[in-house]
Amino acid sequence: MAGITAAPLRLMYTEAGAGMAVSEMVIAATLQAGNQASRHLASWHADEAPRSVQLYGVRPDTLDWACKHLVQERGVAHIDLNFGCPVRKVTARGGGSALPLRRKLFRRLVAAAAAAAGPDVPVTVKLRMGLHSELLTFLQAGVAAADAGAAGLVLHARTADQQYSPPAHWEAVQQLVQAVPGLPVIGNGDVFEAADAVQLMRQTGCHGVMIGRAALGRPWLFSEAAAMLSGRWPDKPPPCLGRVLQLALQHVNAWADWERDELGAVLKMRKLIPCYLQGFSTARRLQGQLFAANSLADWQAAVTDVEAWGFDPAEPYPLQALRRARLKGAGQARGGAQHKVVLPPGWLEEGSDYDGDGVPECLDEASCEG
């Protein structure tokens, strides 16, 4: 998740029970160009293992360089190619979830990454179902990726025009499992609670579960899911408000240390404050104070001053918050309005496949920045 899953949060997730935590999206071209921001994104804490990177590229030669660099120079043990982005500025240039429509290019990209990574580093491919319900691409793309050497597939069970609105279509995960027998398929979408992870695997036959926004402000979700997937009940209930505040304080402090930018980390943390405090009835005044914080000292003072901000550290975790969407998708009604997916001119026309030996001029990795 861009701007969120930096090393401190990834460490929190793996320490809480996640089998692996994937980096923010790294753009192959800017990494190759020596862009400092991209190189920082492609860095890991010394305690992180395995090192997993989400990589985006639209040119086979650039992906070849990036995969070799990440494996040989940065010790990456897993590469996940992102072909699921639904953002307008990306699809308008033919990238993200629009790129699987260019079948030959898509296959060449996966093949280049798999070959460059080598036999010991798995390359997975993340997909959406397609652009909309009348233009689904995930089955053909999944088969093509398998043939090109992908070690596994990740399906976000929504179309691009859904963005992040409910519902996720778990039946599509089952269809993909059946389309690529023997290849691991990871299901993603609408996993709000540990029981959802179990149900997704039972219902679809998928081999694992990816949890994204539902874990924001709830790192313990991974330990709960790991327990239930092992046939056990979680050994303790969700934490009370006081413990949640300790986790949030730990997060912002680690983020500031990682970025070497205290103010920058405090400002970035503002988007996650509602995720940590969602549903806590006694934390409303405290939330406002944390939004106003400009330093780690402000954070420390706020979360320890019960009398000034009137919160109850012993308040139990609010069950009504468990199934609320976080960040993108929050407030969107189930089955609500769809977003128009913008494509390059002629992208859907027969005979304009763009799939020669080169790469369509409209494709531009830089459109993913920012």
Write up what this structure looks like.
This protein has 370 residues and is an alpha/beta fold. The protein folds into two domains: 7-230 and 337-368, Alpha-Beta Barrel (TIM Barrel); 241-321, Non-ribosomal Peptide Synthetase Peptidyl Carrier Protein, Chain A (Orthogonal Bundle), CATH 1.10.1200. It is 40% helix and 11% strand. The protein has helices spanning 7-16, 28-32, 36-41, 60-74, 88-91, 103-117, 138-147, 170-179, 194-204, 221-229, 241-259, 262-269, 273-277, 284-291, 296-304, 306-309, and strands at 22-27, 52-56, 78-83, 123-128, 130-132, 135-136, 152-156, 185-188, 208-210. Strands 1-2-3-4-7-8-9 form a seven-stranded parallel beta sheet. The protein has a two-stranded antiparallel sheet with strand order 5-6. α4 runs parallel beside α6 (103-117) and α7 (138-147) packs parallel to α8. The radius of gyration is 21 Å and the shape is globular. The model has no long low-confidence stretch (mean pLDDT 92).
**What is the level-2 CATH architecture name of the largest domain?**
Alpha-Beta Barrel
Domains, number: 2
Strand order of the largest sheet: 1-2-3-4-7-8-9
Runs in which pLDDT lies below 50 for 5 or more consecutive residues are none
Helical/strand content category: alpha/beta
End-to-end gap = 13 Å
Morphology:
globular
User: Regarding CATH, which class of the largest domain?
Assistant: Alpha Beta
> What is the fourth-level CATH superfamily of the largest domain?
Aldolase class I
How large is the radius of gyration? 21 Å
Q: What is the N-to-C succession of helices and strands?
A: HEHHEHEHHEEEHEHEHEHHHHHHH
Give the biggest beta sheet.
7 strands, parallel
The proportion of residues in beta strands is: 5-15%
Share of helical residues = 40-55%
